[in-house]
Batch of 4 targets.
Target 1
Amino acid sequence: MRVALWLLFTLSLTVVTARAEPVAVEGGLIEGANDGGLTAYKGVPFAAPPVGDLRWREPQPVVPWSGVRPAKQFAPACMQRGVSMPGEAPPAISEDCLYVNIWAPAHSSAARLPVLVWIYGGGFSNGSASMPLYWGDKLARKGIVVVTVAYRVGAFGFLAHPELTHESPHATSGNYGLLDQIAALRWVKNNIAAVGGDPTRVTIAGQSAGSTSVCILAASPLARGLFEGVIGESGGFFEPVQIAPGYILANAEREGAAFAQSLGASSIAALRSLPAAKVLEGKMPSGAHPVIDPYVLPATPYDAFATGRQSDVPTLIGANAEEARAFLDVSSIHAATYGADIEKMFGKLPPQLYEQYPHTTDADARQSRIEFETDLRFRWNMWTWARLQSATGKSKVFFYSFDHAPPFPSNSVRAGWGASHFAELWYVFDHLDQEPYRWTQADRRLADAMSSYWVNFVRTGNPNGNGLAQWPEFKTEDGPGLELGDQIGSAAVARTGNLRVFSAIYDQLRGASHP
C-alpha cells in the first residue's frame, strides 16, 4: 500500500513539475510551465512595447527574439495609479506591458479547444491581467483555454489630442487601450492553435470596464470576425452621449490639450519625452474613457445595436442585484437629503426618476439609493444590451441577475457589500479558496454552477448543460433571465418599470425613438 501511495505521489509530482515543450508563436518560441494537467504561459508579448515614440500610437507587431523565451512569470501591469478593486494588492507597473497570459489543458496543439479571452475592469484607469482572481486555472480544468489580456489604461490608453489626431493615418486619437484589446484578439486568432485552442471558437468576456470594452468591441467594425461570442458582467456603454459629451472626439481632444497643459507640455513630443511616472501626475478632466471616433468606434454602441450593425454573436450578460453597495457608505444616506445628495453627485435629474425610488424614511432612502445607482450605472446598460441584441440580432441572448451575498467578513474592506459590484467574480472563476472566508456549501455549489454555465457558453454559445438548472433565452423586455443565488432558476427581469423610465428620458435626449 505504501509503495502504491509513493508511486502515485511520484507520478503526480512528475506531472506538476514536468517541463513544457516549447511552442512557436509570433516572435519566436515560448516555454510555459506544466501544473497538474495544465500548461500556463505567462507574460507572452502580443505587441511591441508601447514606449518612446510608440507611446500613444496603435500597437505595433511583436519584436522577435532568438532562442526559447521563458513564459513562466507575469509581466507588470500597465501604468496606473491605485487598484481596480478595493482590497486588491497593488500590481507592479511598467509602460512595457502588452502581454497575455494563457492557461491551457495539457493537450496536443491539435486539440482545438474553445477559448475564453478575459478583459479586466478598472474604470479604464487601472486593472491587471495577472490579478489572481482572474487566473484561468479552474476554468481551464473544465476543458477550455483561458487568455487574460493587458491593455493600456488611464492617459496612456485613452488620451485624445489634436496633434495625435493629426499624425494618425486614421484621423483619430484616444482609443489606444481598445486598439490593444483588438491587437490581442488578432494575436489569439493567429497563435492560439499552438497551445491547443480553436481560433474559430473565441469568446470575449469582461467585467465592469472590461464588460464595457466587450460591448464596444461588439459594436466596432474593426473587431468584427475576431470572436464568436460575448460575455458581459456589469458594464456597458449605451447611454446617450448627450450626458457624456467628453466621449465625442472633438471634446476629448480639448480635454487632452488640458491634460498636456497640466503637465506643462506644449506638444505631443514634449509629452512623449516625459517619464512614465510623470505622465501619471497629469489631470484628465473627465477621467479615462473611450471615444466615439471614425476608426475604432464610428457609431455609439446604442446606434450600432439599434440598427443591427453589431457583431451578431451569442450573448451572455447581466448585473448584480446591489451593484452600488461597493461604492456607497449606506450609513450616510438619509431621507431628508436624498435628492440633494443625488444632485450633488449626478447633477439635476428629471423628477420622474426620483418618483421610482421611494425615500420617505432613512431605511427607504438607503435601499432606494442602492437601487437607483445600480439601475443608473449598471442594470439599465445590461438590460438595454440584451433587448437591443434580441431585437436586431439573430443570435441567442442569455441574461442573468446575481443576487447572492458572499460571506465577506465584517472586518474586511468588502464588509456589507452583499451582491454588489465585483461579487460574482469569485464564483465565475471558481476561486473561493483564494480568500479565507467562511464559504458554505451553498457558495461552492453556486461557484461550480456559474463556472460551468460560463464554460458551456464558451463551448457552444449556450450556457445550459447536464446537471444545471435550465437557463431560458431572453426574449422580451421582461426577460426571462436566470437568478443566480442560493437558489438558481428562471425569473422575469427585476425593476423593468424603473428601467423603462430611464429609457424614455434617454430617448428624449437623443431626440429620437429607438427599440
Note: Residues 1-17 have pLDDT under 50 and may be disordered.
Target 2
Amino acid sequence: MTISTLTTPRIPGAVIYTRVSTGDQDKNGTSPETQLAACRQKAAALGLPIVAEYYDGGISGGFLLMRTEFQAAIADIQAGRSNTLICPNISRYSRDMEHQQAVKKAVRAAGGRLVFCDMDFDDTPEGDLAFGIMGGFAQYEKAVIKDRTMKGKRKRAEEGQQPQRSRSPYGYHIVTNAEVITGIHPPEMRGRYLIAEETAPVLRRLFAGYHSGEYSLSTLCLALNKEGIPTPAQGRAWREATVRVILMNPVYKGEPVSGRQTVSTDESRLGQRHKLTGRLIMTPEVRSLAPHSKRLTLSAPPLVTEDVWDAVQARLARGRAEGSGNPRQIRMLSGHAFCPACGGKAGFKQQKANGKRYRYFICNAHKDARYQFGNSPCQGDLYPVETVEQAVLQAVRDAWQNPNAILAALSAYENPTVRAVIEDTAELRAILSELEELRKEEQATAKAQVAGIRAGADPSVYASLFANIAGRRKELNTLRATAERPSKTMPQLKQKPAAKQVPWIKTANTEKALQVFEQAWRVLTSAAIEDHTKRDLLLTVIDRVICKKDGAEVIFLPGIFGETREVAEPTLYTTCIGISTHK
C-alpha cells in the first residue's frame, strides 16, 4: 500500500468501514447491518457527520490490497475528506498485525485517527501496547479458525468423505450437505461418490475409445462435439486438454484423492505477470501440489478397471514423449503473435520433416474450428517462427540504431487510420473490462442472495438485480460483437504510411527511448536469458506482432517513442505504430 505523508486540511467527519468474510455472521454479532448500526451510533456519540460508508463483503481480514473499499476509506482520510476512520472492532479492521500497523501509521501520518466501537486506544504508549495486543489476538483467532477448518476437512477425509464438494468429477455426483439436510440422502452418504447415470456412459466411452487405440484425443473431441454431448463446463466444446485431464483422474478406477493441492496467499504477486501466459495476476491465491504424504486416497465406485486406467496412462505418457514437445513452453512471442488474416491470436505448431522439427505460428481460431465444426475464420496459414522472431529483433534494433525510423513511426501515429485502430481496440478492452466487473458483481449478488435466504429473507427481492445484470450483459455482448469484427481493425493495419526522411532532433524523451531499445535488443539477442524473461521485456515496448510469411509487422506501444501523454503502465495501452521488416 502506498502511504502518503502529504498533509491537507482535515474535515471533521467520520468514514465508516465494515467487513464480513462469510455470508452468515449474525450469530457472532458481525453481520453488516449490526456493524453499520454500531459505527453510526459511535459517530453520533463523537458528534461527527458521516462522510462515507464502505463495506467489503466476503473478503478475509488477512488481505489488504484486495479490500478495495478499505483502500477507499483510507484514501478519504489521506485526501482530507475526513479525519476519523470508524471500524466495529479490530478484527473487522484487519487480522494481520503488519497490515494493522501500516494502516495505523498511514492514517496518523495524514492527520487522522482510528476509532473502534468496542474499545478505545489512547494515543499513548499504553494505548499502542493495547492496540498491538488486541491486534495479535485478531491474527491468532484467524490462524485458529484456519487450522480448525483444515483439521475438520482432514478428519472428514479420513472418515471417507470428500471435503471438496463444490464440483463433482465428470461421471460422478458427490453428495452435498444440502442434499442431506433436505432428506435426499441419509447423513452417512455425505461426501460420498455416486455414479451419475447421465454422464457415466460418456466417461466409459472416452476410456474405451482411447484404450482401444481407435481414437486419439482430437478424434474423441471431434466425435463428442459432432454429437452435441455437453462438456463438464456447459456451453463449451470438447478439447484435448479437457479429455486429457479426465483420463488422468484416478477417481475413475475408484481411488479419488483428497488434499492434492495446497492453497496459500501472497498479495505481493498482484500486478505481476504470470510466467506462462504473461497476463497480469489478479488473485493472491497460489496453488501447488501437496506432498504425497499429505494426500489421502478415498474410495468411489469405479467406472473403469485398474488395468484399463493404467493402460490409458501409459498411452498418454507415450503421446507426451512422442508429441510435438511441451505445449506450455514459453517463447519470446507467446501470447503476442497474431494472425494477419483474421486478427486472432496465433499459437505454436511443430511439424516433423526429414528428421527435423520445424516451428510455425498458426491461427488459434483456425485450430479451434476443428472442434466446433464451424467455418474457420481464415485459411490457417503457417508462419515460420524463426522468421517472425528475427523480424521482431530487427524492428527493435532499427528503433535503436535508426533515429529516422522512430520519427517516421511518430508521423505514422498521427495517421487518422492508425488512430482509428487505437480507438477501436481501446473500446474493446473497455468492454471486456466491464464484462469482467459485471461477472464479479453477479457473483457477489449470488452470495448475498444465499446469505439472505439463510437469514429468512424473501429471495424474490434479488430478481430485479439479476434481471438488471442480465440486461447489461446482453448490451455489452452486443457492443463486444461489433468491436471484435476483424474487418474493423486488421485491414487498416495493412495500410502502412510510407517512411519519411526527416531531420533528427534529439530530446530527453528520444534519448530515453534509445536507451530502452538498446537494452531490449541486447537482452532479446542473449542466449543466456530465458524466453519468458524476453517475453516480459517485449511487453514493455511492443503491443503485438502481426505474423507474415517473410517477416512481421511490429506494433509498438504508444508512449514508447515519447508522445506527449504520460504512460504509467505501457502494457495497458492499445496498438499505435506499425513497422514492417522483411528479409
Note: The chain is about 45% helix and 15% strand.
Target 3
Amino acid sequence: MSDIAALAASAKAWPFEQARALLKRLEQMEKAGQPKQGPVVFETGYGPSGLPHIGTFGEVVRTSMVRHAFHVLTDNKTPTRMICVSDDMDGMRKIPGNVPNQEILAAHLGKPLTAVPDPFSNEYESFAHHNNARLRSFLDSFGFEYEFLSATELYKSGVYDAMLLRALEKFDEIMAVMLPSLGAERQATYSPFLPISPKTGRVLYVPMKSVDAKAGTITFDDEDGTEVTIAVTGGQTKLQWKPDFGMRWAALGVDFEMFGKDHQDNAPIYSKICRILGVRAPAQYVYELFLDEKGEKISKSKGNGISVEQWLAYAPQESLSLYQFQKPRVAKKLYFDVIPKAVDEYLQHLAAYPDQDATQQLANPVWHIHNGDVPEHNSPISFALLLNLVSAANVENKEALWGFISRYAPEASSTTHPLLDHLAGYAVRYYEDFVKPTKTYRAPDDKERAALTDLAGQLREHEAETDAKELQNLVFAVGKAHEFENLRLWFQALYEILLGQSQGPRFGSFIAIYGVSETIALIKQALAGDLVKK
C-alpha cells in the first residue's frame, strides 16, 4: 500500500468516508462468494423534465470526488466507470414554466420526454435531447470523465430486457413491496409496469388485467378502452420510478449512488427491488437539497435558484465545486449572494494548501476539487476586495481595475496571475449586476464626521504608505481615539458611508490597493455629501 493510500484509509473528508464504505461493500461481496465482475460502477441520475440546474451538476461533481478518493484508497488498482443516466423515457407530467413555446408542448403531455418536441428550436430531436445536451455541455466544460446513458435507449436497445423479464417473474413480490407505500386509491390501480400506448404514444398509468411471465407480456386497457397485450421488452413499457430505480441498479451493476434527501424515504424500496431482482443494492449516500433564497426547494420546472451557466458568469468553476463539497448533508441556500464568499473561501483553502502536511491536505477541499493535483495559489487579492475596489474606483472593465491592482501587487500581471485576471473580470460583472443596483450611501453623524475628518488628516501624513497592516492599524487607532466602544461599528460606518454597503474587506487592505490619496478624496466626497447625492 502506498503512503497516500495508507493516509486515505483514515482521512476524515467525506469523499474518503464514502470510498471506504464502498470498499467495505466490495469486500463483503467477495466474502459472500459474489465478487465484483468488471469495473466498479458509480452512477448519477438525472431527470430531463426541465433545464438542468446546479443540484444536477452537484451530484456529478460529488460522485466524481468519491470516485477519485476510491482510486487513491485502492492505489488505482481497481478499475471504475462513472455513468450519468437520463430518465428521458419518463412521461411529461406538466409543462415547465421556464421554457418558451409552451403551446407546442401542450399536445404532447403524457408522452416520453424523448417524444416531446424541442420548444427551444428545431436543433434537437426532442425536449429531452435538448436538455440532455445542456447537461452534457456543462459536465464537459468541467472535464468530468463519465458515460452518458439515455433511459430511452436502454429500454429500446434491450439493455434492460433481462431485468424487465425478471421483474415480470417477480411481479407479485414487487407489488408486495410497493403497495404498503401507497394510499388506498392508488393501490387499486397500481402497476410497476407502465405501458406505452400503441395508439397515442403516451405513458399509461393503468392497472394490469393480466401478466404472463412465461410469454413476457402484460395485458391492459388502452386509453380508448381497447384491450391490448404487449411485450414488456424493447421499449414498449417502462417501470414506475421507484421500481425503475432498483431495476436500473440491478441491470447496470451499480455499486455507488448518491441522491437528494427527497429520495431518502424511498431508498429502502429501491434496495428491496434490486435484491428481489437478484442483485446486491449499491452503497448509497444521501445529501441535503439546495434551497433558493426564500428557503424553497430548487426545481427544474420552476427554474428557481441558479444555473451552472449563471454561476460561471460571475465566478470560476472551482468556487462552484467548493460550494458543492462543503457540508453536503446540510441544507444550503443557493442564490447569487453566496458567490463572493465561495470564491474567497476557495482562495483561502488554495493559499493554505502548500504549508499543510499530507493529512491536512487530504482534508483540504482543493485536493478534492483538483483531484490531488492542486495548482499554486495565484491571487494576492481577495474577491471581496476587488468588488469594493470596483465600487470605489467606479471602473467599468478589468483593464482599468488592473491599474489599481498593479499598485498593490506590482509583481502581478494578467500573464503571471491568470486567476487574478479572471477574478478581476468577474468582479466587474458581479458588481454591475448585483452590487451597484443595491448600494445605499448614508451621511455620517457628528461622531463619525469627526472620526472621518481625523482619518483623512492622518492619512495625509502617510501618503506614501502601501503596507496594508500599517494602514489597518492607523484606521483602528482612529476609531479607538474617537471612542467607538465597539470598533465593528466604526468599520461598519466606513463601509456604509464610503462604499454604500454594511460590510466589506479589511479597510487597511482597501486603502493600500485603492491608494491613500484616493481614499482621502473619497472621504472628502462623503463629508461633502456627494456620495449620498450620487
Note: The first helix runs from residue 3 to 8.
Target 4
Amino acid sequence: MQPESFDYIIVGAGSAGCVLAARLSEDPFVRVALLEAGGADKSVLIHCPLGMAALAQTGQFNWKFDTVAQAGLNGRRGYQPRGKVLGGSSSINAMIYIRGQREDYDQWAAEGNPGWSFDEVLPYFLRAEDNARGANALHGVGGPLHVMDLTSPNPLGARFVEAGRQAGYAVNPDFNGEGQEGVGPYQVTHKNGERFSAAKAYLTPKLSRPNLQVFTGAQVCRLLLEQRRAVGVEFVQQGETRQLRATREVLLCAGALQSPQILLLSGIGPKADLQALGIAPLHDLPGVGRNLQDHLDVVLVLDAPQLKDSIGISPGAALKTLKAIFEWRKHRTGMLTSNAAEAGGFIKSSDSEDRPDLQLHFVVAKLVNHARTLVLGHGVSCHLCVLRPLSRGSVRLASKDPHAAPLIDPNFLAEPDDLQRTVRGFRLMREILQQPALASLGSREAPRSAAAQSDQEIAQFIRHYGDTIYHPVGSCRMGSGALDVVDARLKVHGIQGLRVVDASIMPRIVSGNTHAPTIMIAEKAADMIKADA
C-alpha cells in the first residue's frame, strides 16, 4: 500500500506549525498534513489561564525534558518543559506577548540574513496580531492572534510597577511600543477570559478545511530522503509505523530541542557524531544542534503571610479559589484569568549599556521550582534573566532510538559575562522589591536568598537555584556560515524540499519571550513558501 501523499507535511503543531497549517491550507488546491506527537488541546487546564499552575504539578501535555548536568549550575540537571499537545508550548506557557528589540532583528540581517531586519519583519507581527488596544504603526488588529491586557489584574502587579518607579525606572505601558525600557504590565495572548494559544488562534478555526489533515499522537521518527531531497516522513501512531509523502516540501516545526533531534535521526548533521551512534550520515551538516541559547532565570521570593491578594496556599485561599472557579466558569473573569506573571520590566545592568540587557517577570505568588513544588502561605516572587547571553550549548542524540530524549546542554553560565550581568541584575531586582510600594505590605525576602549579600554569595545562589525561563532557540541557526543550518529562506543547506520553521532558526536569541517571534517567523515563512511554489 502506497503512503498517502500531501503537498506539504508539517512536523509539529506548536506555535510555528499551527501558523503554517492555517496559512498554507488557505489555497483549497493544496493538501496539507500536520503531525503532532501530543493530543488535542481540550483540557480545561489549558484554556483556563491560571490552569498552567496545575499543568506544572501534573506534568500533562509536556515532554518534561531534563538537561545534562550543568557545570555552571553546580552540576545540577535543569528542567526543560516543552508542549506536547496541539499548540505546543503556547498551550502551557505564561501567555506573555513580547517581540523583543528592534536591534535583535537588525543584527540578524546584518549577519547575512537578508529580509530579517526589524522593518522587514514588523509587517508579519502586525499581520498576526489582533490587539484589543487598537491599531497603530506598531500594533495590528484583525489578525488571528488576540493580544490584550488582563481583564482582572491582581493589584500586586500595580504595586510592583510603582516599586519600579520608586527605584527610578520609567513606567512603560507598552513593551512592544517605541521603546522597551522600563517597568509595566505585560500584555497576554488571551481572549474572553481564556488562553489564546497558537492552536486556538490559527488551527482550530481551520480544522473543517477538507485539504487540511491533522494527525495527533504521531511522533515523527525520521525524514524520508531521496538523493538529498526530503520526500516524506516516517512516524509512529498508536504503535504502528507509518509514512507520508510530500510532493512539495517537508516543514520541520518541532522546536529548538526536537527539530535538530529529527534532523540527526534522519542522518543530517555532524558526520562523526552520527557515525558514532550507528546512523548513516546522509548529509554532513556540522551545525545541526549547535548554537543552542536560552535565558537563565533566577527567582527572588518575598514572604508575606498577611498578603491575601497573592495567589497562595492557606485556608482562606482555598475558599477564595473555590469562588474563583465559580466566577471563571460563569463569567470568564476573576483570579483564574491571571497568567501569574502579570508585570515586569526591561532594565540595564549598568549605566554603560545602550539598551536593556535584563528582563524581570513579577509573579503574584511564591513560585519556586517551576511551580512543581507547592509552597505554603502567601507572598510574591520576581524572576530575572539576562536578555542576550553569550553562552552557547547544544542538542545531541543520546542514541538512535527516536523515542529517547535528546541530550540538551544549554551550557548555562559558561561565559563569565553572563554570571556577572546576572549578579548585577539580582541586586537591582532586590532594590526594586525593597521599595515602599511592596515593603509596606510587610514582605520579607525569603531566607535562602536573603543570606546572599556579597557578589560571591549571590553568584553561588544563582548557580544553586538558577534554571531556564523556557526560551530555547538557535539550534538550527539561520545564516550562510559553516555552522549554519538554514538559509535566509529557511531552507536546509544542501537538502531540497526541506525547511526548518521555528525558534531553532534564530541566529541570536531575542530580547524577551519567544512565542510572538516564533509566530512571526512562521508568518514570514508561509509567504516565502507560497512564493517559491
Note: The two ends are 28 Å apart (CA to CA).
